[in-house]
Design brief:
Elements lengths: L16 H10 L15 H11 L2 H5 L41 H10 L3 H19 L10 H11 L13 E6 L4 E6 L3 H6 L3 E2 L10
Antiparallel strand pairs: 1-2, 1-3
Length: 206
């Protein structure tokens, strides 16, 4: 991947979601970072990544890339060159430099990469479950554990502590989709043809 820094010995290992999951699972000590090229301009860097990270490269099961190179990835959405981990890869710069999931999604959609991202992520997860299985398969919680978990949950995730507090579901047969909205917006959606509630299955329009 690409990285802009003033310190070649920084702790940056990459910002890709699949790579971060792999590091979390196998440990950073099992990964080696090797600097292949150093460039003076972002344009040169983009050009080299586009040359290396092509369609065949990202389709390989031995790589963690989910999109072709050359477009800057997530790290160069803003003009400052700050990446997902913060300025110059230093996580100590805090959350003010982090990109939100919505901004990443907007970037992928804008560059026509969202469908490819979903396919790559889905394929990787399927391979993971096929290879490793689900860690809880064949196991059951003891009655004592169930009671403890139930007691711990009581009073939590209710009222304003619930992430969906003040929201409600609406659906559209015309658009074949569900969505959550603010309750204050319900009448507006109803007037535009939406219905209150959530529909689990839509019939495709022919």
């Amino acid at each position: 991947g690409m990285h802009k820094t003033k310190n070649l010995q920084d702790n940056y290992m990459g910002s890709g979601k699949l790579l971060k999951r792999a590091i979390q699972k196998y440990g950073e000590e099992n990964f080696i970072k090797e600097i292949l090229f150093i460039f003076d301009t972002a344009e040169e860097m983009f050009s080299k990544e586009k040359e290396i990270v092509n369609q065949l490269f990202i389709e390989s099961s031995n790589t963690y890339n989910i999109m072709e190179g050359g477009c800057g990835g997530y790290s160069y959405i803003n003009e400052s060159g700050k990446n997902l981990y913060g300025q110059n890869g230093d996580i100590n710069h805090g959350g003010k430099n982090l990109l939100t999931g919505n901004k990443i999604k907007e970037f992928l959609i804008e560059h026509g990469l969202f469908d490819k991202y979903k396919e790559k992520l889905s394929s990787s997860l399927k391979e993971k479950w096929k290879r490793d299985g689900f860690h809880w398969t064949g196991r059951k919680h003891k009655d004592e554990s169930k009671k403890k978990m139930s007691a711990d949950r009581k009073g939590k995730y209710t009222g304003k502590d619930n992430s969906n507090y003040g929201n409600c579901w609406v659906y559209s047969d015309l658009e074949s989709k569900n969505k959550t909205i603010k309750k204050s917006e319900l009448n507006e959606y109803i007037n535009n043809g939406w219905k209150s509630g959530r529909k689990m299955k839509f019939h495709k329009n022919v």
